[in-house]
Write a structure and sequence with these properties.
single chain; 206 residues; alpha+beta; Cyclic Phosphodiesterase, Chain: A; 2 domains; 5-stranded antiparallel beta sheet; 4-stranded antiparallel beta sheet; 35% helix; disordered C terminus
Length: 206
């Protein structure tokens, strides 16, 4: 398995994992938004070529916001379980997907083209029954890095992180606003770990 995507921050993952959905839930630690997917058993020489091409595409991308306020499911074939998903809204995310495709096409990097329309999402669970779409309180976060994952198991996984570039002051302000919103949302839900959040906020002030 190999793909390029965005890892969901732990605070947002905790909020999403509390949503009541049918089926077998995915671990919040595995929550991500896929940008592009590659073939199984992706060879290391292709990984290296893909990393170079991805770096070119991402070199001038600034941090941007994404949000979800809808839970839905994808249609399936052959009796497979229905993926229960949080739909992601972000014009910048669609632009990034197109930019990666354009760069990969230019560099002759092959990627999956099974799905013609890009529908960014976070998979929350897999259900045997189709579910009706419903709204949730919006969950938002600032994307500050893109990651390439390779491998199927923890011992054999490779993670390469591409930090997004942008004015440091703006990124810090957006990060603090994001932290403040998550603080109150989690506090209302009774799941806040106060000590850890306070420690992170102190580190940001320093």
């Amino acid at each position: 398995m190999a793909f390029i995507g965005i890892q969901v921050p732990k605070e947002c993952g905790r909020l999403l994992s509390n949503i009541k959905v049918p089926g077998k839930k995915e671990s919040a630690s595995e929550y991500h938004i896929t940008l592009l997917f590659f073939e199984n058993n992706y060879p290391i020489d292709k990984v290296c070529e893909t990393l170079k091409s991805a770096f070119e595409a991402l070199s001038d991308i600034k941090p941007f916001s994404v949000k979800t306020d809808t839970v839905s499911s994808f249609p399936v074939k052959n009796g497979d379980p229905y993926p229960v998903i949080a739909l992601i809204k972000s014009d910048e995310l669609h632009e990034l997907n197109e930019k990666l495709k354009k760069q990969f096409d230019k560099d002759s990097i092959e990627y999956s083209k099974v799905h013609k329309t890009y529908r960014p999402h976070i998979t929350l669970a897999y259900s045997e029954k189709k579910m009706e779409e419903f709204k949730i309180d919006a969950v938002k976060f600032v994307v500050q890095e893109v990651v390439m994952w390779c491998g199927d198991t923890a011992d054999n996984r490779l993670f390469v992180t591409f930090p997004l570039q942008g004015p440091e002051r703006k990124k810090k302000a957006e990060f603090l606003a994001q932290e403040a919103e998550m603080f109150w949302r989690l506090a209302e839900g009774g799941g806040m770990v106060l000590g850890r959040t306070e420690e992170r906020r102190k580190s940001e002030r320093n």
